[in-house]
């Protein structure tokens, strides 16, 4: 029953995300304040629904509910609690659910703490963020349902992939995802500014703390290499902890360099204004 609640909450989150990406954008365009302001409650409701869905999946893992196909394929009743929890995102469907959860957290954070933003810009930022959420939620609901049932239910599960049975993996993916997905908020600010037709020092000042927050999460995630804390035999067979880490750094390092190499994030507002003016007058 709890798995069905999680699945239903995921479908409702898709509907709310679709509302969030259309109604506030139209409201900001036609100057309807009520429609534009609807982005704030929509982003909060979307976060609550996705959190309910994620919690339902985690409950299925902790209680070893092997009637859920995802739990059967990636968990075992004899596994320690740490690996049952990390098994939630140790697979495609669960990791996608974690992805949209972090996406919704960043969107809701802008809705709650972005009081310094102009209402029109805030509505457009949240609308773009909602469009990203709509795309990922639609993909999960249509092709990657994490709550699919098995009938009859197996007695025991297959267990988590041995390569993922590392204490660091209980913390590494969430931090890395917070960095990956968190940078989507910078994208949303950029698209909103292009729609608004205004990219100035004030815009750089508004987007900077959100970009720095995502960048710091990504830095922590890269600094927590899975396998280096527990060089198990299976990890060494796959090329060793350093080889496992190299693949992670190779992919995430590129994303890390992009915000890190932008001098605007580290400059005071007067320098940002001067830099933007020089670029605009070239």
Average residue pLDDT: 81
Q: Based on DSSP secondary structure assignment, what is the total number of beta strands?
A: 0
**What summary fits the major beta sheet?**
none
Discrete helix count? 13
Radius of gyration: 21 Å
Q: How much of the sequence is in beta strands? A: under 5%
CA(first)-CA(last) distance: 62 Å
What's the helix-strand series? HHHHHHHHHHHHH
Quaternary organization: single chain
Uncertain residue segments: 227-247, 265-281
Q: What characteristic shape results from the CA principal axes?
A: globular
Record the SSE blueprint.
Blueprint: H1 2-30, H2 33-37, H3 39-62, H4 69-74, H5 81-86, H6 92-113, H7 119-143, H8 172-182, H9 184-196, H10 201-222, H11 233-237, H12 240-260, H13 269-280
Helix pairs in contact: 1-3, 1-7, 3-6, 6-7, 6-8, 7-9, 8-10, 9-10, 10-12, 10-13
Describe the protein's architecture and organization.
By secondary structure, this protein is an all-alpha fold. The protein is built from 13 helices and no strands. It has helices at 2-30, 33-37, 39-62, 69-74, 81-86, 92-113, 119-143, 172-182, 184-196, 201-222, 233-237, 240-260, 269-280. The protein starts with a helix and ends with a helix.
What's this, in brief?
This protein has 282 residues and is an all-alpha fold.
Notable characteristics:
mainly alpha, single chain, 282 residues
